[in-house]
User: What shape does this take?
Amino acid sequence: MWPWPRAPGFRDYTETWDSHVEIADETSRTVLVVEDEAHIRELICLHLQLEQFTCVQAADGQEGLKLARERAFDLVILDLMLPGLDGITVCRAIRRDSARPAVPILMLTARREEADKVLGLESGADDYLTKPFGVRELVARVRALLRRAAPAASDRGGLVIDAHGIEVDFARRRARIDGRDVDLTAHEFSLLHLLLSNPGIVFSREALLRRIWKEDTFVTVRSVDTLIKRVRKKIEKDPANPAVILTVWGAGYKAADV
Assistant: This one.
């Protein structure tokens, strides 16, 4: 039995709901919850609904991926251990082929080992949460990821950066290479924008942690290396020999001078 207490008024819909259910609210943002344990899935959606989110459910990886390909969600909550297609496979498939490849993804895992968390981040997840977790922390993580995906106007700067054949438009949250749009997650876009806005300036891993993740989640400096690796795969002609995002050994990372 899951260790969480059930919220007041909670009902068990396990036997009466289909594999995915939408709680309609036209004014809210829509979150896809892919979780095979029905009581956890229902609890998450109950509290998201109370916070004015619309919740769409999937009980396995195959159904979750099908929904992600059919519809552009504002955020995906994805369990690591799923029957059929596991969370890592689904996460990578969403990044590669879905209605919104850059959708923020919060991965849930019952494993506490660092290697499992890093694997989730390397697969394209933006954040992770270890089970069992408190619903208040879950909602806080959801809101934090949505804030990163749509930052305040005061943070936007309003300028389009064009460097090394890469065009980054902060206001439109768009990155292009040779006229081709590049799908970036919220963290990937923030990292690219930060480095290209400050060519030649070296950022330590600790500085990048503070600037990209801020105070919203617990991550390690290894997460920075993982994020750098992901961005290089998307923007560099030869990721193994990068020409745009450079490693400064013993110090951190920088964008090449213009």
Remarks:
- The chain has eight helices and eleven strands.
- The helical segments are 38-50, 61-70, 87-96, 114-122, 135-149, 186-197, 205-213, 221-235.
- Confidence is low (pLDDT under 50) at residues 1-27, 151-158.
- The two ends are 58 Å apart (CA to CA).
